[in-house]
Inverse folding.
C-alpha cells in the first residue's frame, strides 16, 4: 500500500479542486429598475471600494480579504489578499 499515490501525497481528496466565490457586494434594485438596465448602466453596490470582500465555499463564509491587482508577469490580474480567516467552528 505504501507504493500508491495516496500514500505519497496524503488523502486523495486533498487533490480535489474546489470553487471559491469572492463577493464584492450586493445590489438591491427594484424589478422595474432592473428591467430598464442597458449597456453602460451602473448598478450601485452596498460596499465601498476599500471595504473587505468575502470569500465563500458554497454558502459558507471562509475568509475576508482585500482586492488587489497583480504586477509583473501577471499584471492586470485580479487577486485577493486574505486579511481574516474564519473560525469555521464559531464563525468570523
Amino acid at each position: 500500500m505504501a507504493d500508491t499515490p495516496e500514500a505519497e501525497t496524503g488523502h486523495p481528496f486533498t487533490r480535489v479542486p474546489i470553487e471559491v466565490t469572492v463577493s464584492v457586494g450586493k445590489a438591491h434594485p427594484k424589478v422595474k429598475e432592473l428591467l430598464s438596465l442597458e449597456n453602460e448602466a451602473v448598478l450601485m453596490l452596498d460596499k465601498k471600494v476599500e471595504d473587505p470582500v468575502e470569500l465563500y465555499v458554497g454558502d459558507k463564509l471562509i475568509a475576508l480579504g482585500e482586492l488587489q491587482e497583480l504586477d509583473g508577469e501577471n499584471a492586470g490580474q485580479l487577486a485577493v489578499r486574505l486579511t481574516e480567516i474564519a473560525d469555521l467552528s464559531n464563525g468570523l
